[in-house]
């Protein structure tokens, strides 16, 4: 596990029991000018990047919460090393769950004390696939606006963040790569999967196949085929047993399961 030292800003690597007991994590949405793993050692180049400002601010706030290290996906994963990328994506939920605190940075929201806090739910952060596990996994989540002003925790904003979690998990969320809508759910559903980019919605079907191997939860089959949208081909008359997208579980919160099968079911998506 790679972690930037919040004091020196240098990345250190830890294995197994050597991983620090106290570290923070950053949850954010990617922008065009992020600082990558390859660039962290080049301070001259980094100083011109807005993403570097984000890293420094996150380190500062992590230290305020007595965390000497912080995990940040943009600079802690060598995405040119596919084996490392696979391990990181499959370990991400565990890393967020093991952190002392998660800093959720909403860079498209500015705190306005004259307005209701409800408007912060309009942030792009609430529409992305990867941020779902980042909201669920950590023991504490603190929200910050674009100026790094604190405006609430997951607990204090539970009325709002709880609504997000009730909306059939990942339904309606988006990822840049089509396959990532399945990969971002790996830790939530508790399965390990190899990564194959280029297979499209087949990835989400593979995810469901892995869940079937580990669970007898019949709610996996309680999906509804999406209606066609303007500009798209008509929906298929026939389809497989498994859903092609989390969006096909969007109705789930209103679903009534036959009484004899109702006990101990949980919503997966």
Automatic annotation (TrEMBL):
- One family from Pfam that matches here is DUF8212
Query: Species name for this entry?
Result: Colletotrichum chlorophyti
Lineage at the top is: Eukaryota, Fungi, Dikarya, Ascomycota, Pezizomycotina
InterPro entries assigned: DUF8212, HET
Q: Where would one find the signal peptide in this protein?
A: none
Q: Which PANTHER family match?
A: HET DOMAIN-CONTAINING PROTEIN
Q: Where is the DUF8212 domain?
A: 202-228
In this chain the Heterokaryon incompatibility domain maps to 23-108
**Protein name, as recorded:** Vegetative incompatibility protein HET-E-1-like protein 8
